[in-house]
Write a structure and sequence with these properties.
This protein is α/β, with parallel strands linked by helices. Helix content is 42%, strand content 15%. It has two domains: 4-182 and 222-246, Rossmann fold, CATH 3.40.50.720; 188-220 and 250-284 and 305-326, UDP-galactose 4-epimerase, domain 1 (Alpha-Beta Complex), CATH 3.90.25.10. The structure holds NADPH dihydro-nicotinamide-adenine-dinucleotide phosphate and guanosine-5'-diphosphate-rhamnose (GDR). The site of guanosine-5'-diphosphate-rhamnose has 22 residues, from α7. It is an enzyme of class 4 (lyase).
Length: 327
């Protein structure tokens, strides 16, 4: 009997790669989709991966507990992956309450739906390295204290502790993956890696003249989304639920990531990159560096893609996309 997975946030980057992984493993994949997002672009990521016709979609919103209960009742999932969120950190200062509702309360709603309707389903929560915020240890592990620095991170912290609490209070098989930044050609254009690779492609093709960025000194531990969704799945295959850091163990500045992208097309970033205060944040997370040794040991997980390989793949995908729009 094939397993059924229910994914919130299926239209996002991770939802697409996770769907592909689970379909390859023979799962029935059902995604929760917001009615308001129904348009011709809704499944563009799933289409890019060639799997749009292989997943089922149900209408739902993380803010609507009764709808989520109905979905869990109808779908009868073996595994529930809660990937949906208002996930852009900068927007969370403009929309702190909406972020709290979707990213924080939304996760509690999914947990409640599972607890009330199908408590034997395994649950995954998309937690984030942003929860570490103002770093208190040079390498962040599952034991590092949290100090969130944005409304987004505060909301994620609530969702994280609710996941831990539902595991301890009700015995749910609920795991929290503390994932560090992960990117891909399917990354949203607002996030810095994709903003950079898209701009590099446009500059190379003569479609743009400059790239405006905020804090290029910030450092991140960047991996590939394809590798990271594998860790999500592995967490739900364990006998007992737990929390895991998923990271590469290498940190690189935004500026150095920019250099990698421009070098790939033989251009000098100094000629094109401008610093713009618009893209700075009210509070910054200066540096993130994960310690994935628990995931490596307990899950047998390892990242397979280097930052250089990933940025190159992203620039090439953006070049191909813009070239196809030119003809
Ligand atoms: P995306 O921003 O690409 O996708 C977010 C998804 O959430 C979209 O499918 C969006 O749907 C959906 N969504 C937002 N609000 C609601 C709502 N109220 N009800 C239902 N669905 C909603 O994120 P990623 O794929 O990059 O990330 C997946 C998860 O992992 C997120 O929770 C993110 O915060 C977290 N995370 C991501 C990391 C990363 O580096 N990518 C690192 C650590 C954690 P719609 O299409 O309708 O907008
Ligand atoms: P982040 O990702 O906030 O870490 O959250 P993002 O790519 O937005 O920013 C990374 C760093 O780059 C700096 N930066 C810029 N960022 C953007 N977006 N645009 C710019 O022009 C720019 N210039 C510099 C930022 O200040 C920051 O330091 C991502 C999201 O996927 C979250 O959902 C997830 O939880 C975390 O990663 C882990």
């Amino acid at each position: 009997m094939s397993k059924t997975a229910l994914i919130t946030g299926i239209t996002g980057q991770d939802g697409a790669y996770l769907s592909q992984l689970l379909l390859d493993k023979g799962y029935r994949v059902v995604g929760v989709v917001r009615r308001s997002s129904h348009n011709e672009k809704i499944d563009h990521r799933l289409r890019w991966l060639g799997i749009a016709d292989s997943v089922e979609m149900v209408d739902g919103d993380l803010l609507d507990l009764s709808g989520l209960c109905r979905i869990v009742k109808d779908v009868q999932p073996d595994e529930v992956y809660n990937l949906a969120a208002q996930s852009f950190v900068k927007t969370s200062w403009q929309q702190p309450l909406l972020t709290g509702q979707a990213t924080g309360i939304g996760a509690a709603n999914v947990l409640e739906a599972v607890r009330l309707i199908k408590p034997d389903a395994r649950f995954y929560q998309a937690s984030s390295s942003e929860m570490y915020g103002l770093i208190q240890e040079p390498r962040q592990s599952e034991k590092t204290p949290f100090y969130p620095r944005s409304p987004y991170a505060v909301a994620k912290l609530y969702a994280h502790w609710m996941t831990v609490n539902y595991r301890e209070s009700f015995g749910l098989h609920a795991s929290s993956g503390i994932l560090f930044n992960h990117e891909s050609p399917l990354r949203g254009l607002e996030f810095v890696t994709r903003k950079v690779t898209d701009a590099v492609a446009r500059i190379k093709l003569g479609l743009a003249k400059e790239l405006r960025l905020g804090n290029t000194d910030a450092k991140r531990d960047w991996g590939h989304a394809r590798d990271y969704v594998r860790a999500m799945w592995l967490m739900l295959q364990q006998d007992t639920a737990d929390d895991y850091v998923v990271a590469t163990g290498r940190t690189v500045s935004v500026g150095d990531m920019v250099n990698i992208a421009f070098a790939h097309v033989g251009l000098d970033p100094a000629e094109f990159v401008k610093v713009d205060q618009t893209f700075f944040r009210p509070a910054e997370v200066d540096v993130l560096l994960g310690d994935p040794s628990k995931a490596e040991r307990a899950l047998g997980w390892k990242p397979e893609t280097t930052l250089e390989q990933m940025i190159t793949e992203m620039v090439d995908a953006d070049l191909a996309r813009h070239r196809s729009q030119l003809v």
